[in-house]
Amino acid sequence: MLKKIFLAFIFIEATVISYAQTTDAEADAITNLLGVQKKEAMSKMVSLSAKDSGAFWQIYDDYTKKSMMTAKERIRLYENTAMSYRNLTPAIADSLAIKYFKNRNDQEKTLEEYYAKIKKATNPVAAFQFYQSELYLLTQIRASIMQQIPTYGEVQLAIKK
Hints:
This protein is mainly alpha-helical. Helices cover 87% and strands 0% of the residues. The protein has helices at residues 2-18, 24-45, 50-84, 90-121, 124-148, 152-160. The chain is elongated, with a radius of gyration of 17 Å.
């Protein structure tokens, strides 16, 4: 089941990458679909007692809404990176790196904030399961994207050939 969900993630991310410019509506649709699929995957990876389930899913839904903005920013960053390959200057490269650092830091802060909320509302084990599962999903999504996007160095080598 998790493999099917992961393959769906890859399909969504490949779709994101294939657009040169994603509109706000498209970014919303992509992140909403991804959110639904992540929730399904999360339900398979987090084992909750009946007592903790209601609180957990309420907080998780809030987490999903809050993390949507960071996800949309990340989509735009991938697009800006691809568009910058044509004329990558040191200033543009530095600007992109700083934006990626900020995006990842924002994502980590949100993850830590919601870990604490889940821990307080349920228990540390449920919170850890959330953290571990979310980190796993985010890592898989990032890896699938990075496998599909050539690095700037690869593009330059291909141009030279």
